[in-house]
Sequence to fold (333 residues):
Amino acid sequence: MFETILNLLRTSTAITETGAIINSCLKNATPTTDAEKELYKAINTKYCNDSSTDRLLIDMIVINLTAEDAPSAKNAVFLKVDSLKRLYNEAGADAVIKTAADNIKYAQFIKDQTETTANALDTYEGIKDRLIIRPLNYDINESRIEGFIYKTVADIALTLYAIVLDDRENGILNTIKIPFEVVETWEDITPEEVFENAMQNTANYYSPRLYTNIFDLDNTPIKNCALMDKGYSITELSDNTVTLLTTDRKTNGAIAAFLPGVLDRVCKLYGNSDFYIAFTSIHDAMVHKVGTIDPESIKRNVTETNRIFASDETLSNKVWLYSADSKEFKAVL
Fold:
């Protein structure tokens, strides 16, 4: 069936009209070039949660957006063969073609938007309203953020990005990192000022959320989770209440811990007490009042969570503490 699906995609008018090129990457293949090694590692990490081997762990169709592109982890559409087989059996050939064509067209749209955003980087005025800060794990991303604008806090890199596409309806946010050499060309503003303004944009763009029912986030009334809004209804939290901190977007929501006033607000809800934060991903963090759990237990939970999930979701391997007296937020374990 694999050959049937491959031939179906390569001969479909809906696919060929896009100019995209269909490639097959078969399970157990080993890379023969550095580009293939990077590609296989990206596939293994994203779809198999395993970056330990160069050997491809899954059958995958990789679609180049243009004939000039080589198969790449950064500029391609990935379709799992098993998923396409299942779709073919359940809905037929037309469904497979439509799925592939829709993915290609969306990826090409993102590519066009990225190029438009890149062109806007010529001046600060052209891009300043689209600059935000995203949190990344520094140790994992050190080589990827070299030459870009970021600030490190323990093992977290608060990194400067520009918004390419904000599709709130479908929960999609596409961004690109901003090179230091680009910021240096902007007149009458320093990299430090750019970063500060981007952090303010981030505070305006993301609305912090604090959830007391971590298993029913989507059904929590706004007044019970919109931490910094005037209508926020919760006035105190019991000592044993474990909360989840994120933002209304959830994507990259762990940035909430670094937005102005957020941690001080949480502190007041816990009766002006110190509290621990465990970053469970780049998207969220768990909050524990000091005295309700030992930090070693939190550390074990963080380590296990980061082991289970993909490395690109990891934000920090440390336990963080917010001090009610000093207002300092730092990694302590």
